[in-house]
Amino acid sequence: MDPVYWLIVLAVLIFIEIITLGLTTIWFAGGALVAFIVSLFFDNLLVEVIIFLIVSLVLLYFTRPVIVKYFNPKRVKTNYEGVIGKEAMVLITIDNINATGQVLVDGQEWSAKSLDGNMIEKGSKVKIQGISGVKLIVTTINKEVS
To answer: Domain total for the chain?
Structure first.
């Protein structure tokens, strides 16, 4: 295969990576680069394609997880992830049987239910253990009523 074709493949893959920023096609661009170099010395399409695939998959498998981990280490957690483990104040008494309960966390009101099924009075402090659907799952920190 003419080396120019590998350069075209390389350019297209880099262009796709620039547009998508998915950190996927860049590894295949690396494979295309190695295939281009091999095509300068050997004129065997099968060898070039095999080297392209092997190098691309090795780069994808071994380096992508490391790069993704460090590419954006300061990723901001979403509301969903960010509230788990935080403390909240009960605004409306939490009663799983009557499906009532609301808490205030970080200035936002959320529906809530008790993890253990016990009623939690208005004014109590709770800790957010998880989320089920659109409701926070909470446990009591103290039972003081404000």
So the answer is: 2
What region, left, alpha or beta, does residue 85 occupy, with left being phi > 0 and alpha being psi -120 to 50 degrees? left
47 vs 35: CA distance, rounded Å? 9
DSSP letters, 92-133, are EEEETTTTEEEEEETTEEEEEEESSS--B-TT-EEEEEEEET
Question: Would you say the pTM of this structure is higher than 0.70?
Answer: no
| Structure-token pair, residue 69 | 């981990």
Do 95 and 119 fall within a single domain?
A: yes
Cβ(30)–Cβ(53) under 8 Å?
no
**pLDDT, tens digit, for every residue of 63-91?**
877 777 776 655 555 556 678 889 999 99
Specify the CATH number for the domain of residue 128. Answer: 2.40.50.140
84 and 135 co-located in one domain: yes
Boundaries of domain holding 46: 3-71
Instruction: Specify the pLDDT at position 21.
Output: 74
Report which of residues 71 and 97 the model is more confident about: 97
CA distance 10 to 34: 10
